[in-house]
Structure of Lipoprotein:
Amino acid sequence: MNFRSAIFLCATAILLAGCVPRSPIDARKTGTSRTESDTSKNTLVQLTDKDIFGNETTLAVSEEDIQAALEEEAVRVPLNSAVILVQSGSRAPEVAMQQEMSKYYTISTFSGIPDRQKAVACNKDEKGETITSENMNYMQALRYVAAKGHQKAIVVYQDALQAGKYDAAAKTTVWSDYKNNKLPDAASLRYLVRFTLVDVATGEWATWSPVNYEYSVPPVQSGKADTEIMEQQITQLKMKTYAAVVKDLVNRYQ
């Protein structure tokens, strides 16, 4: 391949996929190169811990790093702050959660489906040599969006609806994700929520999982009426959970 061909291919790649330079923000937390996903095929992708926290879980951490982190100020989100609200795996947070958060903050919403793009080797370093670019970490990019909008913080929540069946032999309830609108006999439901708060200005974060609610529910038959009752129970469970966990979040971090 001659030099002109190489330039043409690189320019084409820029037009089709874009070349994203490394950002100086949170330089140690930039995400790794990713491949395209099926998000365009209606496959909703959950945010991973790496999307939210960067690669902090794999960095070499010294004792000095830990002690320095202990001296940092805790994340605070005062009442009426402007925040971005994100639900993992959803293009927009559920309305019920938006309504509860709006009681305490001025909220904007953002997609909780990360953009998985291919890395493009078209960037140049200071010496003019080609380097392979990496996509910015999802949270780093979202902090930039929030900074442009003058938001104070980013609030991400990950949720899971689970069904449980009591195991008499083990004398404990065995939980699994609720799927296909089916429940075992003598089942319980619980709605798990985990929050992550990220300060836009500093990148510091706090994560918290409030106590969840559990409900015993009667077995649901295949009839339409029973199915509607089940849906109503799930909606009530979510509404009660949202009201409680948001109130707890505000009391904890304001």
